[in-house]
Every structure is written in structure tokens, then in C-alpha cells.
Design goal:
Layout (H helix, E strand, L loop, with lengths): L2 H5 L4 H9 L4 H9 L5 H8 L3 H13 L3 E8 L2 E8 L1 H4 L2 H14 L10 E4 L4 E2 L5 E2 L4 E2 L5 E4 L8 E2 L13
Antiparallel strand pairs: 1-2, 3-4, 3-7, 5-6, 7-8
Length: 169
């Protein structure tokens, strides 16, 4: 069974794996969640080959997780890749995988875990979905990640591009 078969099968976990299970896809989504929108930003940030990146971005666009929007760059037409509501909804999955990786996948050198910060109060959260201090739900609009191996500064998360619902409405 290949990823296309999984993506259309009856099992919801299989369908998710069919879309997200290719090598690099979750890291592309991590970078999109952190605001990357241009092909070059993904390529530079990940060190990924152009053909693989193009393939993965195409699959994410086809799945409705990213949108592809053309823009002019001098005499060339290029594309922005913007996260959709379906992509924003992956945030808890990415955060759970990061927590799992911190606990169970040993790095070459010790690192500190990703922290999720509630921007209005500036404090880290226990689970990333609710702020215990403000007693509010945390959305992408008011959340940031601190990835200590990159920077101690919180990186605000991308918000969803305006898109139609999966049923076309």
C-alpha cells in the first residue's frame, strides 16, 4: 500500500499518514506554522532538495493544508505557500510529536524542549492549548514557540489563510 492508497482509505490515521507521513512533510509543516511562505525559505531552512520540496508542497496544497498563491518577483511569477485552517489544526499534533521526540528520541547533544508561550501574558503553557494564568484558550494568533536550539526568543505562529471549507463553502 502506498501513501496515495492510505490517503483515501477508510482508516483516519491511515489517511493522515498518507498525507503527512512522507519524509520532510512534518518539518515543512513546522516551518509553515512558524511563518515560512516562500519556496526558498523552506529550502534554506530545511536543506531539502528542490524536487522533494516541490513534491511535498504540492501534496500539502492538494490536501488543502497549504494554499499556493502567485506573486510577481521582478519578471518572474513565484508562489507563496500559506497555511490553511487544516494546517493550523495540525499545531497540537506537531507539539505532541515535539514533546514525544524530546522524551524518547535521543539527540546527539542534550537540548531543552520546545516551549509554547501565550503571547498576551508572555508565560509558557503546560499543554499549549490553554493558559492557566489567563484562563483562556490559546490560538495561533496568541501563541509562539521557543525552540532553544534556534533562539530563546518566542517565534509567533502563522495564522490561517482565508480559504473555503473542505466542502467548498
Amino acid at each position: 500500500m502506498n501513501s496515495a492508497d492510505l490517503a483515501s482509505g477508510p482508516c483516519p490515521l491511515g489517511r493522515a499518514a498518507g498525507i503527512l507521513g512522507d519524509r520532510w512533510t512534518l518539518l515543512i509543516m513546522r516551518n509553515a506554522t512558524l511563518g515560512a511562505t516562500r519556496f526558498e525559505q523552506f529550502r534554506t531552512g530545511l536543506g531539502i532538495a528542490d524536487n522533494i520540496l516541490s513534491n511535498r508542497l504540492g501534496k500539502l496544497v492538494d490536501a488543502g493544508i497549504l494554499t499556493k498563491e502567485p506573486y510577481e518577483d521582478g519578471n518572474r511569477i513565484r508562489s507563496h505557500y500559506r497555511i490553511t485552517q487544516a494546517g493550523v489544526a495540525l499545531r497540537p499534533v506537531l507539539e505532541a510529536l515535539a514533546a514525544w521526540g524530546h522524551t524518547y528520541a535521543n539527540p546527539a547533544e542534550p537540548t531543552t524542549a520546545v516551549r509554547i508561550v501565550h503571547l498576551p501574558c508572555g508565560l509558557p503553557t503546560a499543554d499549549g492549548s490553554h493558559c492557566d494564568v489567563c484562563d483562556t484558550e490559546i490560538t495561533n494568533e496568541d501563541a509562539a514557540w521557543v525552540m532553544p536550539w534556534v533562539s530563546e526568543e518566542p517565534i509567533p505562529l502563522a495564522t490561517a489563510a482565508a480559504t473555503a471549507a473542505p466542502d467548498g463553502n
